[in-house]
Write a structure and sequence with these properties.
By secondary structure, this protein is mostly beta strands. Helices cover 0% and strands 13% of the residues. It is globular, with a radius of gyration of 14 Å. It starts with 18 loop residues before the first strand and ends with a strand. The mean pLDDT is 94. InterPro entries: Leu-rich_rpt (IPR001611), Leu-rich_rpt_typical-subtyp (IPR003591), LRR_dom_sf (IPR032675), LRR_domain-containing (IPR050216), LRR_R13L4/SHOC2-like (IPR055414). This is Disease resistance R13L4/SHOC-2-like LRR domain-containing protein. It comes from marine sediment metagenome.
């Protein structure tokens, strides 16, 4: 809750960063180079004003927790399927209409929260996931 209107580029100079919480700001976009934060395990961008994400978010191969709830996301990149370590994904309270089929590649995913979006079309291969929790109430 720092009143940030942008994602600070200085953060990219911290390649060993493992936890990043920039919740409750006014950030509208992420830097396309966010994938350089390859050690990131925890990323919380809840309560911002993001409308889309760069494809490079799929380069965060060590990410286990991703909270993008309460933004203005209207689409989600296919590169999400590259986040093989991801255990928890929160996309609730956005404006999503569908989830890319690449989500079926997230073999480690245990918790998926996509409630309170526009009507979401779930890909068929979501059945492959061994989720412990799925929240899809609209």
């Amino acid at each position: 809750n720092c009143g940030l209107n942008y994602f600070p580029s200085e953060i990219l100079k911290l390649p060993s960063l493992t936890h990043l919480a920039l919740r409750r700001n006014n950030i509208t976009s992420l830097l396309k180079d966010i994938g350089f934060l390859s050690d990131l395990v925890y990323l919380n961008l809840r309560l911002n004003k993001l409308t889309k994400l760069p494809a490079s978010i799929g380069l965060l191969s060590n990410l286990k927790y991703l909270n993008l709830s309460s933004n203005n996301l209207i689409e989600f990149p296919k590169s999400i399927g590259n986040l093989g370590s991801l255990k928890e994904l929160n996309l609730s309270n956005n404006k999503l209409k569908n989830i890319p089929s690449s989500i079926g590649n997230l073999n480690s995913l245990e918790v998926l929260n996509i409630k309170a979006n526009f009507w979401i079309q779930l890909p068929d291969n979501i059945k492959k996931l061994e989720l412990e929790s799925l929240d899809i109430i609209s």
